[in-house]
Specification:
The complex is a heterodimer. Chain A is an alpha/beta fold. Chain A is built from 13 helices and ten strands. Chain B is α/β, with parallel strands linked by helices. Chain B contains five helices and five strands. The longest helix of chain B has 13 residues. The chains are: A alpha/beta, B alpha/beta. Chains A and B meet through helix 8 and helix 9 of A and helix 4, strand 5 and helix 5 of B.
Chain lengths: 323, 121
């Protein structure tokens, strides 16, 4: 691929996806675009670029999707995932014991391996039978989301990052593919979603995975996205970034968690100096009348406990981590 | 440096696996059949055995049973690497005491991730 073609594709990604791609990504882009032209029968990259320059919107969207298709694997960064499953998840469960909800979001989930890994880890956590568990994965690429929704993986995909025991416990062989079992598939939901668009979810999340996603954006966009992601998170919630990701603005909203790799804890809104429109309205946790402690002998006055994460009813992750 | 024994009757597979494991920092030994695996196991302090199911002289699964039934001897991690890719075989190997199972064909990423999961990297 010629340098001018690479520059054109970088500009395309900047305009349509907000990504800031450096020359270090040349070989990765070259590999992806070579696969795309082979698949579509273009004689060369130059021919594809010529069509893109004509402004064919559908083609532009397909190329963006293809380039945005991120590398992924099951239980990516094994040690990080191991700590997530055996240390962080039980702590979040303890913090939410009154709420009985566990809400996890994976941004930039690509073809679903991360989301299914999270679901498998959650399924191995005991005592969640009467909990409302919500695991949502999003990605810019609709073809990645379609693959994630199908839940079929080839022999290379299924074996990379996962041991055989986890594989046969959670997948079933179908021809040359392995299909995710229904009990895990039922736990997850996938949505196509561009991080630069308006984020709309009904609930805030206890844990957000956004690994190896933000680094592709320019530093200005990174700061704005940190604020957006923080807005989607419960106070004291956990954000996972990729290994070694240095994201502009992250320290304004999150603090690193000592001893927990790649994990950051969202700061309480009162600690953050950000624009009023970005402030979170803390969710209120309603305690049914029958479960409220009697106050001055009057058990009939409706009241709300303090917002979760700010009150005494819900222990903060930081308090638990300190123990 | 950890020692890994690679057992496969295919010279090419042994060569590919040896290269990958050397790159990952292992001392590598090679065996062509099941009897050789037992010989190495008795002589050398092995950390890991990667072996095919279908080995000449003594099948991989019998090698596994022999090693795992000798509790007083060195118990290396054992990974099967086989083209017998059905769930029953995988289950049988795991129930027999194998630590993991690699379905052929494989690539470097798969090997590296399996070794990482076993805590050997």
């Amino acid at each position: 691929m010629r340098k001018t073609d690479f520059d054109f594709l970088v500009e395309l990604l900047r305009q349509y996806a907000g990504w800031s791609i450096s020359e270090r990504e040349y070989f990765a882009i070259d590999k992806k675009i070579s696969g795309f032209i082979r698949e579509r029968g273009y004689p060369s990259v130059e021919d594809l670029i010529a069509d893109l320059k004509c402004g064919q919107k559908a083609l532009i969207a397909q190329v963006i999707e293809n380039l945005a298709f991120a590398d992924t694997r099951f239980f990516r960064d094994w040690n990080v995932f191991n700590q997530f499953e055996h240390y962080v998840l039980p702590l979040v469960k303890e913090a939410n014991r009154n709420l009985k909800k566990l809400r996890i979001l994976s941004l930039g989930c690509s073809t679903g391996q991360e989301v299914y890994s999270i679901a498998i880890a959650v399924s191995r956590l005991v005592g969640l039978n009467d909990w409302k568990v919500s695991i949502i994965g999003t990605d810019l690429s609709s073809s990645a989301i379609a693959k994630a929704q199908r839940g079929y993986y080839n022999q290379f995909e299924i074996q990379t990052g996962m041991n055989a025991e986890t594989m046969i416990d959670n997948f079933t062989a179908e021809g040359d593919s392995w299909k995710i079992n229904d009990n895990i598939k039922k736990m997850v939901e996938f949505r196509r979603f561009n991080l630069l668009e308006e984020l709309t979810f009904n609930e805030k999340f206890d844990i957000i995975f956004c690994r190896n996603v933000l680094r592709f954006f320019s530093s200005g966009i990174q700061s704005r996205l940190c604020a957006k992601i923080h807005n989607m998170q419960v106070p004291g919630g956990i954000l996972y970034l990729g290994k070694g990701e240095n994201i502009k603005g992250i320290i304004d909203y999150y603090g690193a968690i000592s001893g927990v790799a790649c994990a950051f804890q969202s700061k309480l809104t009162s600690d953050i100096k950000i624009a009023p429109e970005q402030l979170i309205r803390p969710e209120e946790e309603y305690i049914p009348l029958s479960e409220r402690p009697a106050a001055n002998g009057d058990n009939n006055v409706p009241h709300f406990v303090r917002p979760s994460g700010l009150g005494e009813k819900r222990p903060l992750m930081s308090d638990i981590l300190r123990k | 440096m950890a020692t890994c024994l690679i057992a496969d009757d295919s010279k090419i597979i042994r060569m590919v696996l040896s290269k990958i494991m050397s790159n990952l920092g292992f001392d590598v030994l090679e065996a062509e059949d099941g009897e050789d695996v037992i010989k190495y196991w008795k002589q050398s302090p092995l950390d890991l055995i990667i072996m095919d199911w279908r080995l000449p002289v003594m099948e991989g699964i019998d090698v596994l049973y022999m090693i795992r039934s000798n509790h007083k001897m060195n118990q290396p991690k054992i990974i099967f690497c086989s083209s017998l890719n059905d769930e029953d075989k995988i289950r049988e190997a795991l129930q027999g005491g194998a630590d993991d199972y690699i379905m052929k064909p494989f690539d470097e990423d798969i090997i590296e991730s399996k070794i990482t999961i076993l805590g050997l990297l």
